[in-house]
Amino acid sequence: MDLTVRLHDLARSRGAVASGVATVAPFIEVRATMAERIEDGSRGGLGFTYRDPETATNVRSSFPWARSLLAVATSYLPQAGTPDRRPGHGRIARFATRDHYGPLRLILEEIVSVLRLEGFKAVALQDDNRLVDRAVAVRSGVGWWGLSSMVLTPGAGPWTLLGAVATDALLKTSTPMERSCGTCRACFPACPTGAIVGPGKLDARKCISYVLQAPGIIPRELRPAIDDRIYGCDDCLTSCPPGSRLLERSTSASGSVDLLDFLTLSDDTILARYSHFYVPGRRARYLRRNALVAIGNWASERSVGALAGYVGHSDWLLRLHASWALGRVGGSAIPVIEKAKCQERNPRVIDELDLAYRFARSAACEEPNLR
Prior knowledge:
The chain is built from 17 helices and 13 strands. A four-stranded antiparallel β-sheet has the order 1-2-8-5, sandwiched between helices. Strands 11-4-13 form a three-stranded mixed β-sheet. The protein has a two-stranded parallel ribbon with strand order 3-12. With 371 residues, it is of the alpha+beta class. It starts with a helix and ends in a 7-residue tail after the last helix. The relative contact order is 0.12. The protein is elongated and about 75 Å long. It folds into two domains: 252 residues, no CATH class; 107 residues, Leucine-rich Repeat Variant.
């Protein structure tokens, strides 16, 4: 049997929703788009393939022997289910409810094994900074560029994880899809922060998924839109019609975290439990930060005790976000804010406490113009 056909059959038999073969020519248009996003600032502090766009858009920079790219897509629905929304709980996006990359890795590794047994060089590239996997998926006919900037695959829509195998085997190339989103604009209003700023253009500085993975302070203006999320955001995906049938089958409850319990966990426990998350510097402080924002949006007086502990935390970043959360709670949180204001020395936290106090007092006085 033809080697290309064998590899496609192998991928499908192991659960892939699509596969295709692309040439190794540089992705010139993608490189230009990345340069534009770097220039206008819309990539924010996003690293990954943006750390070295020249390498990420030319696979032969890393593998000069490569002659073909075999793209593979797997879907994490319906296995990932649907996040269970309950008061006092935080949501994890579907792609991260567990390590859904596992099946994709196994498929890529098996393809590599077959190619090597045939005498070819091969390397698996999955979530790898050396290659823009979305570009490979589109060129290979696995899917098409969605207006949300996601790759959309027939049957699975945006609910896919992508990977590729670079090889010196000259495989039969696939035909790119002649599909588009047409007149559909469902993802634009679905985004809670308006991060989709044009067809296929995403402003990472506003994207909740990016913000929750980025280091530093979460911008104050974005915190209410984060709602109960602590990792990832699915809103542009859930609005996408090509993925609706698969979404309807994803009925099992998942992705729910008790927020107050989460704040009591040790750093080691958090990082072990969520080892498949991307966390800057592998520092649990960023997941705690996200949980504090979700607690602020919950705005329950049940959280005051936990927040009082965090407003006295040794980490200024956590004190700052706990201060904001206390302001959203108001009521019995006001004395805690007042006490913290007397003890705080970090100017950024002091500013947050001042704003939290004003917000809480305005809510108590029912002055919405100040809120």
